[in-house]
Amino acid sequence: MNQAVPKVVTTIAQLREELASVRRAGKTVALVPTMGALHAGHLSLVHAAQTQCDFAVVSIYVNPSQFGPQEDFQRYPRTLENDLALLADCRTDLVFAPSNEEMYRPGHATWVEVGPLGELLEGACRPGHFRGVATIVLKLLNVVQPDAAYFGQKDYQQALVPRRMAADLDVPAAIRVCPIVREPDGLAMSSRNRYLSPAARQRALVLWQSLQLAGELIERGQRDRRAIAARMRERIEAVAGAQIDYIALVDPETLQPIEIISGRTLAALAVKIENTRLIDNCFLEPPPAVASAP
Ligand code: AMP
Predict the structure, then answer these.
(1) pLDDT (tens digit, 9 = 90+) per residue, 14-35?
(2) Whether the Cβ atoms of residue 84 and residue 5 lie closer than 8 Å to each other
(3) Residue 159 and residue 151: Cα distance in Å, rounded?
């Protein structure tokens, strides 16, 4: 507790200078990309990064190109001072907090086209979102050149798309995904939870409850995607002011719907509670079928 506030650099040149000496010392480097407004979910990534690498860089940057025109870019919480205090407590080595001008210099014209993974689920609801995500992640990977970059399962697709991109574009960094950190009552931690009124915060529990319901149905032998999704929908629609963007039961690699669930399946959903759009997901793992006696 009460460690020194980590060093903060705001330009790519400063960042490269800092990292050159780290590399000369033979240390491995981790990158944790964030948009700030940090909570225990982010800090779990920092912890994994520090455990697995010698030097952890946390980037804090609210990337405008991943927000749609009607989305919350302007009001997205920006809490740098508090973020730095949290990062000091978990002894982050370096923070990169660039300006928009630093990340998108005049004349910026190159974007990462992500293909089908970027068009499904979140991509279908938020056109252009993953083009913005992939572009900023690639830029961060290029400036930091980490040995490993850390993402949370909370934003499942935001980790899957960089993994695809890193494989396709020969990015040498390992892409690592850490489990979802939840509040004690099950709500997945999110910077956007702070938008919720106390009543909406209570209603937001329905995301996790409906995912748990899916798990229970699987346990009881239900395997039909439509039947499970219908029960989840019913549960969510019983909550006042809840508006479903999607409920998906999909292959975790391709994000294509699975009609009859027989192996590891991703259950993912996006729901608006009042005006706040929340996402959550979990894996459904039906027990292997028992071979019938001869
Ligand atoms: P964000 O600042 O929302 O862009 O998130 C930065 C990173 O933290 C992403 O890789 C997220 O998936 C991850 N993250 C956000 N919330 C959680 C959580 N509750 N548990 C684990 N990781 C999280």
Answers:
(1) 999 999 999 999 999 999 999 9
(2) yes
(3) 6
Q: How far apart are the first and last CA of the chain?
A: 62
Residue nearest to atom 8 of ligand 1 (CA): 42
For residue 292, how far is its CA from the centre of ligand 1 (angstroms)? 43
Amino acid at 38: L
Query: Which burial class, exposed, middle or buried, applies to 174 when counting CB atoms under 10 A from its CB (0-12, 13-18, 19+)?
Result: middle
How many Cβ atoms are within 10 Å of 76's Cβ, its own excluded?
Answer: 17
Taking residue 165's Cβ as centre, other Cβ atoms within 10 Å add up to 24
Catalytic residues: 42
Residue linked to tokens 């909406």: 200
Extended beta strands in the chain, E state: 7-9, 29-34, 55-60, 94-96, 148-152, 174-178, 242-250, 265-273, 276-284
